[in-house]
């Protein structure tokens, strides 16, 4: 990531709260955000898998698309079909490059009201999504807190019962400190939980109440290891320039039947007809040394790909990685080698996700 001038760095409405907690702050997508707190990433990761944690995800964008034509505008650009859901629901979708169908951004859409959609792009892609969809960038008006883990709803029930009750991939308004807010049953950890968008003026009181309820703070380091265990893609790694939804194993995000089509439809049709050239797979290694992004993947001694994301899995106790391998190599493939700085390390092809959410 290139250096960002200090004057251009954005800060969360909760920045002061993170610093009081001793957070290690790092640049991310044009923002300065907490990477971890004093207990460290592994402790935060395990707290999410076993209890509940709170992430400040205010760096994610919010593009508000409103008006009588809002639904049609989204339908004509994004890959998924909002007609499958309806008011009061959320949907995962993609914005594609028109030329080659690579994923310009992966997005969650909150269908908040009849003519209001809050579109949630990745931090560094907000401007491009705004240009593609129109609407207004309201990122600066709210903070977003993700409360995740098997105890998330129980603990949030003492803070904001209406928010805690929002079902998975549903959206509902609630009130916090007398101000209108929105909750969605979404997240990025592989665990149950909710995300709440609250006005900046009351963000601090919401954060404090969540922590006072017994939810532990967690940073971007744990968010990344959690999403990797769950095999959830990260833009710039498993999605981005040159990578289509079909290559990333996300064909279910594409509606081939909606009459409006979507941006990049022709290019994606062409790839589907010709055969998808590569596919995302999971890899596992023995020991604690993790594969890292960019690690060469070898088949029969020959480099065929690079790791898109890799890390140590706190739950499994060994290294895990994702990689996009050529399709012609995958039939019957059970193992590869990883070139870790000149040392060849065996890796097993592993079904995804690496860690599945425990059923209660």
Helix/strand class: alpha+beta
Give the DSSP E fraction (strand runs of 2 or more residues): 25-35%
Q: Count the helices. How many?
A: 9
- Spans of at least 5 consecutive residues whose pLDDT stays below 50 are 1-6
Principal-axes geometry comes out as: globular
Intertermini distance: 40 Å
Radius of gyration: 20 Å
Oligomer: single chain
**Average residue-wise pLDDT:** 96
Descriptive notes:
With 360 residues, this protein is of the alpha+beta class. It is built from 9 helices and 20 strands. It has helices at residues 15-20, 41-50, 70-77, 126-133, 152-156, 161-164, 203-212, 220-229, 265-274; strands spanning 10-11, 24-28, 31-36, 53-56, 63-66, 90-96, 103-113, 116-120, 136-137, 142-148, 171-176, 179-184, 193-199, 216-217, 278-284, 296-299, 302-313, 318-326, 335-340, 343-350. The strands form 4 sheets. Strands 11-12-13-10-4-14 form a 6-stranded mixed sheet. Helix 2 crosses helix 8. It is globular. The chain starts with 9 loop residues before the first strand and ends in a 10-residue tail after the last strand. Mean pLDDT is 96; it is low at 1-6.
Question: What descriptive keywords fit this protein?
Answer:
single chain; about 350 residues; alpha+beta; six-stranded mixed beta sheet; six-stranded antiparallel β-barrel; 9 helices; 20 strands; about 20% helix; globular; disordered N terminus
What is the topology?
Blueprint: E1 10-11, H1 15-20, E2 24-28, E3 31-36, H2 41-50, E4 53-56, E5 63-66, H3 70-77, E6 90-96, E7 103-113, E8 116-120, H4 126-133, E9 136-137, E10 142-148, H5 152-156, H6 161-164, E11 171-176, E12 179-184, E13 193-199, H7 203-212, E14 216-217, H8 220-229, H9 265-274, E15 278-284, E16 296-299, E17 302-313, E18 318-326, E19 335-340, E20 343-350
Parallel strand pairs: 1-3, 4-14
Antiparallel strand pairs: 2-3, 4-10, 5-8, 5-9, 6-7, 7-8, 10-13, 11-12, 12-13, 15-18, 15-20, 16-17, 16-19, 17-18, 19-20
Helix pairs in contact: 2-8
